Amino acid sequence: MKTEHLINELQSHGLRLTDPKAGVASRRGGAGPSDHKAVTIDSMTVMVPVHTAPAFESPYVAEMPDDDGISRIRRSGIDLGTISFPKRPRFYDLTTKDGIPYPKIAVLHGRDVLATTVLQTCIRYQSRTKTCQFCAIGQSLAAGRTIERKTPAQLAEVAKAAVELDGVKHMVMTTGTPPGRDRGAAILAESAAAIKAAVDLPIQGQCEPPDDDAWFARMHDAGVDTLGMHLEAVTPAVRARIMPGKASVPLSRYFDAFAAAVPVFGRGQVSTYILAGLGDTAAAILDTSERLIDLGVYPFVVPFVPISGTPLESHPAPSAAFMDSILRPLAAMLLRADLLATNIKAGCGKCGACSALSTYERRLPA
Ligand code: SF4
Fold this sequence. Notes:
Blueprint: H1 3-13, E1 16-17, E2 36-41, E3 44-49, H2 53-56, E4 60-62, E5 70-75, E6 78-84, E7 107-109, E8 113-117, H3 137-142, H4 152-166, E9 170-174, H5 185-198, E10 203-206, H6 214-222, E11 226-228, H7 236-242, H8 251-265, E12 270-276, H9 282-295, E13 297-303, H10 320-337, H11 348-351, H12 357-363
Helix pairs in contact: 1-10, 4-5, 5-6, 9-10, 10-12
Bound molecules: iron/sulfur cluster (SF4).
């Protein structure tokens, strides 16, 4: 089976683990890839669901890993080859000067990405009528696995250790949306400035479009190298159903913000996350991607994965065939535009672990 197909299959069906303790302890709930584990397939590290309802019935089974973390993967008894589990990062054993365990401040994503949610609360998460239906930002906070507000000093301390001890290559800073009109741009800027003062690490900031486009230059000047503003869904009706609060920011504001941000951060250094499988057609996602690429924005299309404890926990993940129908033509469009994951300085598009998109890019002839 080709690597990109195996990644699509695993991200759709999930993976059953003979040894649930294999690899780095995974998170359950939270922002970003929750209920997942990082596995490396053909030198590409991807996030694969392991704690979701479909994963418990997945036809894909990983055997107990050997001492080097290498495990055989099978489907219906047929051997499909090996995968490996990244080792537990060394920075996880440390505690900040003010007494917080490092993994409550930031965690390892994929193979070499440090990821944090600077503010673990969100104006959109207060009521079930407004919350993004896929989001679990409050769950890891309620379970005590993280703290509400990571200070710039804590982030700088953890980032420095993650680079020095574990060779982390870039950092993703997302945030719940605070009440202010800057939508989180201010805390991303102050955090980036503190991190850059401590360690040389490329940083992606992720937030909703701020009220004032001047925030893009302020974030960039503070040390944010790349920016993510995430559409999540591309059709107005799907956005209104899946994220009733965030859909109050119309698509037109996102596109205006993209057009203002690209000259600041550079072509290909602004991106958006699109969750396939929530109701948008493949054609709608590809049409929107074409508009984004024309602006110089990288559309990072990932399969939606239902997270336990969210309103969408029983919503099916998209099929591998649906993902192939988007990612194959999308990779060709990106290649033609020379807007590739490998050229991104930091962030989800560069990491690529939540989608097979960058593997399609690698497979296409230049
Ligand atoms: S693509 Fe983004 S959210 Fe997914 S593992 Fe990588 S850094 Fe984390």
